[in-house]
Amino acid sequence: MPAPAHPSPHRPAEAGVDVRLPWWAVALPAVAFAALLLLMSSPGRAHAATDPAVGQLVERSFQLLSR
User: Fold this and answer.
1) What is the pTM of this model?
2) Percent of the chain with pLDDT over 90
3) Long-range contacts of range 39-42, CB-CB < 8 Å, 24 or more positions apart?
4) What is the number of alpha carbons within 13 Å of residue 28 lying toward its C-beta?
């Protein structure tokens, strides 16, 4: 099979870039942010719902951020 004599010319890049993200690429960071915000706003509930060390860490983080 012979190779093409002239390679096809490349089109120059357009000024605007069209990027399409899947739905989860936006949803997952939003859900993670909301979960962390919920943990920070109610450290007492987070302490009861998880491992005691994690609850203490979240509670201490909340205390440091509220200063």
Assistant:
1) 0.38
2) 0
3) 40/65
4) 5
